[in-house]
């Protein structure tokens, strides 16, 4: 890799991270690509002042039909009655907002956990007058920021973008997909220590940090696994509520402690503790999903209602950690066939699936039923 390419990659990565931080604090970013440009705000973070500023950026004035557009996932738009469920070929909905709408109403449209007024009565309609690539980039960035996948955008002539957004927060979205793919395999080992665990005293924890400086993934290495043999492993997505607080809504705590116990009894192995809370949607959105589940949705339906996929996790970080630890073949403690195929697609051979099953309780029985029926888990 030449130095010019490395410098460009580092510069792009820094711009992405600045944009994510700006979205999380409610600020505006600029998106460009193929002769188009737009200003974007995360819909859940919009306030009256930032919304008014966005409206004033319209080339034809704040009350014109070229004003801000609300970008929603197709599933959220269907729930709001803006488009038929399962609309063929539509992943996103670009919505024209009435001039009189306020920031609170916009936040309500983005968030399925709050009561929303009759959407068509608000004057919200579908349109297709915003470049799709810019809209997709705004949703991808909102997800990466662990925010609801919804954005407010307004199209501008590229030459006018600098009047509204500082150049440090302007991102060429044509490189975003490649950046996200590269980031998943960019882990670097940054620290380790021996940490005796209950029932697994010969344990080392190794931290791996992604190139964007985001949350570290951890390898919990028990015993001394032999790289020449398929290693017994567990891929465990972090679960604050289950792992730390002992939540009864899921089986995550049981799975984590059970994996450590099983691996210790076998002699050696690895638990990969992955920073992918809530199947990759983040803790806050997982709490929102719990509210939707309390209203009758199952785990999969709740994710879709929020605008996420059924499972947003990626397996390239786990594969990269294994490669850096010297392992290319595994025996996988799992009930989830997606984990098997995900590792295989990332170049790790899954020699054997080792069942990993624990008793249910009155609070998680339906959750486990959903895992089996909707996600194909093998109990």
The H-level CATH homologous superfamily of the largest domain, spelled out, is DHBP synthase
First-to-last CA distance? 46 Å
List low-pLDDT spans.
none
CATH topology of the largest domain: DHBP synthase
User: Mind telling me the CATH class of the largest domain?
Assistant: Alpha Beta
Largest sheet: 7 strands, mixed
The tally of beta strands, per DSSP, is 14
- What would CATH call the architecture of the largest domain? Alpha-Beta Complex
Separate helix tally: 15
Helix content: 25-40%
The neighbouring-strand order within the major sheet is 5-4-3-6-2-1-7
Fold and architecture overview:
The chain has helices spanning 3-24, 48-56, 74-79, 103-110, 119-122, 132-144, 176-184, 240-244, 252-266, 277-280, 283-294, 299-306, 316-324, 337-345, 365-375, and strands at residues 29-33, 36-42, 69-73, 92-96, 125-127, 151-156, 170-172, 188-194, 203-209, 217-222, 231-237, 269-274, 329-333, 349-354. With 379 residues, it is α/β, with parallel strands linked by helices. Helix 11 crosses helix 12 (299-306). The chain is globular.
Helix-strand layout with pairing:
Layout: H1 3-24, E1 29-33, E2 36-42, H2 48-56, E3 69-73, H3 74-79, E4 92-96, H4 103-110, H5 119-122, E5 125-127, H6 132-144, E6 151-156, E7 170-172, H7 176-184, E8 188-194, E9 203-209, E10 217-222, E11 231-237, H8 240-244, H9 252-266, E12 269-274, H10 277-280, H11 283-294, H12 299-306, H13 316-324, E13 329-333, H14 337-345, E14 349-354, H15 365-375
Parallel strand pairs: 1-7, 11-12, 11-13, 13-14
Antiparallel strand pairs: 1-2, 2-6, 3-4, 3-6, 4-5, 8-9, 9-10, 10-12
Helix pairs in contact: 11-12
